Amino acid sequence: xxTTLPADRPAFGFSVTPGPPxxxxxxxxxxxxxxxxxIGIWDSPALFREPWVTLAAVAxxxxxxxxxxxxxxxxxxxxxxxxxxxxxLDELAPGRTYLGIGSGGTGVMHAGRAASSLDDLERYVAAVxxxxxxxxxxxxxxxxxxxxxxxRIPVIVSAHGPRALRAAGRFGxxxxxxxxxxxxxxxASLELIDAGAKEQGRRVDDLEVWFTGFxxxxxxxxxxxxxxxxxxxxxxxxxARTGVEGKLVPPEHRGGIVELGRRYxxxxxxxxxxxxxxxxxxxxxxxxxxxxxxxxxxxxxxPDEVEAQVRxxxxxxxxxxxxxxxxxxxxxxxxxxxxxxxxLPRFARATRPQTRx
Length: 357
Prior knowledge:
TIM Barrel; 17% strand; disordered C terminus
């Protein structure tokens, strides 16, 4: 897989909560025309539409944009089911398919299950790879076969902490970094991924590393920041779920971040009502972590301010950025449209496919 990008040309993709598949497919067509590199579909069947069905609709409607889960998990889907779905999607969108996977969030919680361990996640990825590339794998002590697939599909592993980042660097083809967007977090994350990659004789530059966060851009000063004030609570919940030790949270903010994450309501994850958004912003302000959390997890402001935020992350080594969009379809389109209008042109990036070796 070719992973190198020009130093001044970042890649931009986004991940969405899937509504009706036809609507998401139409959104993907628009995003492709705007110049986005990839679209990812959440896997949380209790809250949203089925991701693989949605991805099939996207594949049939588009020609260039890369597509995949963002992210699925090892708990609710058997490796054979995931491998078969990914291979089938790659037949619809040859060379454009990837598999984004993590230990499990709302897709697992709402099924009454617990997230997987990193060891289980690594075994799951190995099984899916074996099925895709060799047609056979061991799953829970039994032999599983998928003789018709025989294809290489990149596996991009979601990671929100230091152990997960290092593990993802060891066994992933790429990494989704959910630890933050500030230069110090970017640099530390890349070091951890590189350490894991070196365990397999690779370097971080050999991997496809995406830094994920929320995006809000608006020419009106203050409006974008007001719109995104609640958003950092979602990432704080991921950060705090397994504790903040080693996650670069300053001592003065640790208690506030943990409490902010503890009080996040996963029953509305991905479709937060306006009143709840206001309550999250007020809580973060009350806990004294609003400005810190916004700076760490959100690109928000005027076009000039957002460009500066992106370039600061790039100065620490980030080259790929994912915009998390948890909203209804009209807001999906509004937010990616604003990013395309106000941010993409500032990086003078020609539309291009990303190929795999």
